[in-house]
Specification:
This protein has 552 residues and is α+β, with helices and mostly antiparallel strands. The chain is built from 17 helices and 18 strands.
Length: 552
């Protein structure tokens, strides 16, 4: 019923756009005359990836390509896996949660499939809490080793959470920029940023960091914490269809430009050699094939079939599957290499866990040495697969099959003005408007899926508004490394309707588009000039830029 309703809403939205086109032409509606063709920019995801739905379900629709390829059954099945909570009741649907986990399900982080919401406290069960904790050693700026890269704050009995979330403190601080948070015409704006602290008592295992090639315990004073919130997941399959060569060409173009003006540190040296204009780090999976990095703020992932969603359905819930028959515990632990786990060690020595372990896992290779049995259970790389290959396939069909909502009001005079200014002041330099997909041959670093298994989007002009390059904004309490991939802007104007919030940037510090723009304005920021130009626009011009950003 809901899918039918969405279909009718889509038709209604398309009809409204067509009526608007007739009205713009100043001609009477005449059924005998051809309908004015919408411009290509309305099709944010191309003809194969766009839906005309501007309702609260705009982010949740299948692409035309998904429906055309008769993937509707798998899409719905994958959607259910995304929307439901996993549990610890063996033999039931959605079984496999834990032993430790970040969230019970995906919707908590991606409300209505969109961006996470700004939080005043960290609770894993709060709908809309898209925050992942980034816990690092201030001395080296590297993640600490004794919690996971996506630290868990929840556990199923008899185990205990690696971090006690009740002790996590999020404080929102006021920030005043060099312009006093005021535009030249007198209009003011407000800027806030998060300060996050976690005391020593919140950590279940000792706090271990890697220094000078050795793992050492460090004091809480050396531990830094940052927040990173989830982004919308709609349209990710379309960006997966952009050829690696096209993304590489954009890095080359920017590298050549920055070299020409003498800015030799403009691109992340961990990934790109700016002198030679070439990659120094690729992403590769089990097959060993090298891929260009394109996903996550830190650009840690390559193709979508082994990117954030494929990873999260395992490590956020700790639900095992055939290609990952081990638990996600801490950063030091590598199941395949059988390296040491600090979490497993702490659990194995915990009297409470020892007391109830055999009651909870009565069939678990009991030897009588409870400490050894607990450690071996947690670190085993031969766990039973809790998610079937069929379910995982359906989940990835859904993930790659999510459409982008069409752009809106592009013929509006103010939106047109905002679009022109967006380009003139330099926003489009990083928020690159359009890309063209390639043949869209399916690339799966794990070798599980091929062309016939997924919806595909060959030769589409799409409008994500990102360059797939990392830049630095030098914000107060910035993202951990300072390097952050340009986030796509498409569909963000519907966030308030879809999710109930319009929070932006990597930690949701910006509550409005204007705040987000002004956070780009630090003296060292790669976007400094664009921010200065925006600041010096008139009130009506600034409003036009904001309206355009919300329209795309």
């Amino acid at each position: 019923m809901m899918r039918k309703l969405s279909f009718y809403i889509s038709l209604l939205s398309l009809g409204m756009l067509i009526v608007a086109c007739h009205e713009d032409s100043n001609e009477p509606d005449n059924n005998d005359k051809p309908v004015k063709e919408l411009s290509e920019e309305y099709y944010s995801g191309g003809k194969l990836g766009t839906v005309f739905n501007a309702s609260a379900s705009a982010y949740q629709q299948p692409t035309p390509a998904c429906d055309n390829a008769k993937f509707s059954y798998y899409f719905k099945k994958g959607e259910t896996l995304f929307e439901r909570d996993f549990n610890q009741t063996e033999g039931t649907a959605f079984y496999g949660l834990g032993p430790v986990y970040v969230r019970k399900g995906c919707l908590y982080c991606h409300p209505a499939y969109g961006h996470g919401k700004r939080q005043n406290e960290y609770r894993e069960s709060t709908m809309g809490n898209g925050y992942l904790l980034v816990i690092y050693d201030k001395t080296t700026n590297a993640y600490i080793r004794s919690v996971a890269g996506m630290p868990q704050t929840a556990a199923v009995a008899p185990f205990k959470a690696p971090i006690d979330e009740k002790q996590i403190q999020i404080d929102w601080r006021q920030y005043t920029d060099e312009w006093g948070n005021q535009f030249p015409d007198g209009e003011t704006y407000d800027l806030i940023y998060p300060e996050v602290t976690i005391p020593q008592s919140a950590f279940y295992a000792p706090i271990i960091a890697a220094r000078n090639g050795q793992n050492v315990e460090i004091p809480i004073e050396d531990v830094g914490v940052r927040l990173e919130s989830t982004i919308g997941i709609y349209g990710t399959g379309l960006t997966d269809a952009i050829p690696d060569s096209a993304i590489t060409n954009e890095w080359v173009r920017q590298s050549q430009y920055f070299n020409s003006i003498g800015k030799t540190d403009a691109l992340n040296p961990a990934y790109w050699n700016q002198t030679n204009n070439e990659w120094v780090s690729y992403y590769s999976g089990l097959t060993g094939t090298k891929y260009v990095r394109r996903y996550t703020y830190a650009m840690t992932r390559g193709p979508i079939l082994d990117a954030a969603g494929a990873n999260a359905i395992w490590n956020i819930t700790n639900v095992t599957r055939s290609d990952r028959r081990y638990h996600y515990l801490d950063l030091n632990f590598n199941a395949k290499a059988q390296t040491h786990s600090y979490y497993a060690e702490a659990s194995s020595k915990d009297p409470d866990v020892q007391r109830d372990f055999y009651k909870y896992f009565p069939q678990e290779r009991k030897t009588g040495d409870v400490e050894k049995d607990i450690y071996n259970y947690l670190t085993s790389n031969t766990q039973a697969a809790e998610m079937s290959d069929g379910d995982y396939h359906a989940f990835m069909v859904w993930h790659r099959g999510l459409a982008v909502p069409a752009a809106r009001d592009l013929d509006d005079e103010q939106v047109q003005r905002g679009k022109k200014l967006f380009t003139e002041i330099g926003c489009a330099t990083c928020h690159h408007p359009s890309w063209t997909t390639g043949d869209d041959e399916i690339h799966d670093p794990n070798g599980m899926f091929g062309n016939d298994d997924m919806p595909r989007y060959p030769h589409q002009k799409i409008w994500p508004y990102t360059d797939f390059v990392q830049h630095r904004l030098f914000m107060k309490n910035d993202i951990r490394t300072g390097w952050c991939r340009t986030t796509p802007l498409w569909g963000r104007g519907l966030s308030k309707m879809c999710t109930g919030a319009d929070d932006r940037l990597h930690d949701c510090r910006a509550r409005t588009v204007t705040e987000a723009i002004m956070w780009h304005g630090a003296k060292e920021s790669d976007a400094r000039k664009a921010t200065e130009r925006f600041r010096n626009l008139s009130k009506s011009e600034r409003d036009a830029v904001v309206k355009f950003i919300n329209a795309i």
